[in-house]
Structures are given as C-alpha cells and as structure tokens.
Amino acid sequence: MKKTLCTVLLGTALGLLPSMAEVDCLELSLTVKHTVAAEQSKVLEIVSAQVAAAPSCACEIVKAAIEGSAASADTVAAIVEAAAVAAPEQMRLVSQCAVAVAPDALAKVQAVLAKLDPNLGDSAASTKSAKDSKDAKAPASEVAAMPNPLDFPGKGPIGPTPGGPGGFPLIPQLPPIVIFPPDVSNVNPQ
Amino acid sequence: MKNYFSLAFASLLFAGSAGAQGLYYVGSEAQESLPLKWVVGVTASYDDNISPSYGNEQGSVAINPYVGLSFVNITPQTTWDVYVRLGVLYYLDAPAGTNDLNNQSRAGVNLTHRFSERLRFSSRNFVAYELNPDYSYGVASSAKVGEYFYWQSDNSVGFRWTERLGTYTGLRLAGTSYSDLVNNGTFTWELYNQFRYQLGPQTVLTGDYRYGQTTGDGAASDSSDQYFLVGVEHRFSPNTIAIARGGIQLHEIDGGDSYTSPYFELALNSQVTQQLSVRAYTRYGIESNDTYQIHPAGPSIFDNTQTLRFGVSSEYALSPMMSIFGGVDYIPTSYAGGRRISDNAGVSDLSTDLINAYIGLSVKFNDYLTGTVSYNFTESSSDIQFQDYTRNRISIGVSAEF
User: Rounded to two decimals, what is the model's pTM?
Assistant: First the structure.
C-alpha cells in the first residue's frame, strides 16, 4: 500500500510538472510504463492521476499504461475509461491512442465511449473529425495531437489486409470481407 | 513515355475494378490478429497457350492442388504475419520440351517489433517459386519459359527522433533466378533511409534516399541505382488511403553508361462502399529485371529498361455469400541501351506492351467451402521474338478453410 501510495504520489508529482515547465510527454510515458509494469494492479489509479495532472499527455500516458501492463482488451477499456473520466476533453484522443496500440480492444473501447458519451459516436479518425477536432479544441501538446510518424497516418477500417506482401492475402479471402465503415462522428456536437 | 503517364493517371481516376499484391502495398502492417487458418484447394483450368514465350501456341488442361496456412498475431509490442501456400501446376497435355509438373508456391513472414514508442524493427520477407508470375509484385514484365524463383528480405529499424520526425533505415535483399533460362537472374542489395514527417493526423511526408547494387546473371550487366524521392502518405478518409512517392533515379552500369530517369510509385486502397473495394498501383522507373531479350539481330542485353507498371483490382460483394472480382495489370516496357551479347555491338531499341486482365465469381457454399470461377486474358504486343502472344485461361476451383 505504501509502495502504491508512493507510486501514485510520484506520478502525480511528475504530472504536475506541466504547470511549472513544459512537460516532456515521452519521458512521462516512460515513467508511467515502468511504474505500471511494477504495479500492474494499480494501473487505473496511475492512469487517472497522471492524465488528470497532465491531460496534454493523455495519449502517451494511455499507450504507456497499456504497453506497460500488457493489458487485455478489458483492461484497455478500463484504462480508456479512467483516462476519459480524468480528462473528458481528451476522451476521443485517448480512445484512438488506445486502439493504436491495442487494436484487438476496438470493440470494447467503442463500448466505453458509447457508455460515457453516447453522442460521441465512433472513435475512428476521419478527415472531417480531425478537422473538427482541430477547430474545436486543439490538444495543448503536439505529442498528444500527433500520431507516431513511424505509423501509417490515421485510423480507420481500411488498411493493409493481413496475410500477404503488401498486406493482401496470399490465400484468397473470398468472398471478400465486407467492411462496414463506422459513421463519421462529430467530436464537437452542438 | 508521356502517354504512359497519361494513361496511368487516367486509369487511376476512372478505375472501377481489380485484385492482387506487392505494388499494392500501402506501407503498413496487419491491423488485427487472425487465428491460424488452413486452406486446402484444387483448381482445374484450361490454358490455351501454356508456353507463351516459347514456340507455337499449345493449349492444355491443368490441375493445381494446393495447401496453405496463414495467421496474424498482434500484441502491443510485436506483430507476426505469416502465410504459406504450397502447390503444383500439372499440365495434362504438356507439349514436348515443356515441363508438365511445375511449382506454384509462395510464402512470407512479416515481423514488426516495437521496442518502445521511439524504436521499432520491421522485417518483411517473401519467397515465390512458381510458373505463372503475379505481375503486381513488380518483378516480371512478361511470361518466361519455366519456373522462376524470387525472394526478398526487407529489414529496417524505425526511430522516432522527435514528436513529428521519424526515420526508417534498412537493408533490402532480393534475388531472382529461372530454372530454364540463362542471363535472367539477378541479385540486389539496397540500403535505404526514409525520413518521415508527421504533417497532420492524416498525413505523413516522406523523403527517401536509396542506394542499391544489382549483380546480373551471366552476360547481364551489373549496375547500381540511386533514388532521391519525396512523397506523401495520406488517409483521405477512414476508408481511403494512398501513398505517393516521386523523384529521380540514377542508374549506372558497371563499366558502362549512366542513365537518369524519373521515378514514381503510387498505391491506393479504398473501400468505396460497403460492397465495393478498389486497389490500384503505379510504378515507373528503370528496372534491372528482364534485361536479356532475343533481339532480331541476336540475343542482347538492354541496360536501360524503362518500365511502367499499372494495376487496378476490385471486389464487389453481391451478397454475403457471393462476390465478383476483377482486375487489370498494364506493363509497357521500353528496352534501350542494347548490346548484342556475341560481339557487344549496339542494337536497336525494343518495346513490349503487356496487358493482363481477369474477372471472376466466387461463391461461399458454407463456412468452410468456397467455389471460384475465373477468366484470365493476357496479351503481349512486342517486337521481341516470342514476346508477341495472347493467352486465355479459364479456371474453376474449390477450396476449404478450417
């Protein structure tokens, strides 16, 4: 318990840094990752405290927590929920970040979003939604707004199909898998 | 060559159908895990020209049994993408001098390991040993006599230097060889570095430098290539993504001439509607494959082989149990810088236009069984001996997945 308290306090202290200086989200994410790895059972507390203290680093914190705890789909959903409650304005962002590192948890993350804000719609990124998001509330930190440049940009149902070079199936998947694109969401509902 | 550009872009704009691999690559990895899946199937086909680049046309019925497996495993840190398909193509009426039993097999292993948010390792590996080339892999520009063996291993390290800037630095190895031909094989190693700048949530700007050396088999030339490219990866919508890269290629023959060429590559992947998906690719540049050709003046090597590759493929789901698919590959190639092997005397330029089109219907009988019928048409128009031909193939097959 003592250790946990120290961990949370340490994390909170780190999270308060942005008020004193510009926070380095990457460094913070590494700290979160190591902390969560050491205290996996406290992952939700840590996420909640960190995101509340440094909402601009919510994306990195959530991703670090998921990776550090090798989270299952249920845990990913819980992490997203904890982060979204701590920083509601980052709800959409953290859901995208979570799915980026744990794509298997997409359905459960969507369920969390539907529960927390039924008007939010699906979390898939789109040109429109990204534009709206930018116009409405631009994330305070570049790292929160920017996905990893090592990845193909954006998220959506279209991507390389697994199973072959170029992402196309060597063994034909026929009839083709019909993808039902999610509705484009408005992140700034009136 | 301007006409090639116009045609390629016009086709891209108005494309409505298509279906296949390699150059369709849009630069990322598998997105979700798939359990181990086995496939066993057999295809019966009639081919009216089984050796299109060798002598007179002769048709034959063929049987193609195969077995395959694939799986994708994704964890937050590591992605495995494995697929294997082993098969043979047996011609019942193969003419004398033609193999009646041929390999038709491919395999691939792709791995991405993310050490951290900053550092990752990516490895993409592919091998094919087969008779009929898949033109969308960007290797073959015409059918050859006998089987060919092609392999490629692309290994890179990705590092995120800042929030917006990352790089991929890697080594690509590739080789081709033909069981029944000389002067056609190649081995290539290529070092590359790609800068990636995250312009926005939907856009990554890229800048590539590549340096590679190719060793040709027999009389084929050895050469080196440099590429200076800029490009963009963009998600137009959740359902449409594309990459585009273009720039300059410097192609230098060991102990010979140097050539400069524009180089570009495009790939597009779109789920147009819930039922319709479309993919397309285009690539243009100087290639080191297929430099050996039979010129009317005698067997020759062409050091400036400029090739445009364009492909579009599409699938349309008529119902949850039935779909149609089709596609076109168009590959015009100009062979310049030729020299006759026997005496190194210069020879005139040659050209080949190849069109490969296919259409098919597939029906899912139940959760395990799928039936497919397809028609494939290939036409090669060329002033190269044995490269002027048409070919028709009709296939019907059934496969089981479990």
Answer: 0.68
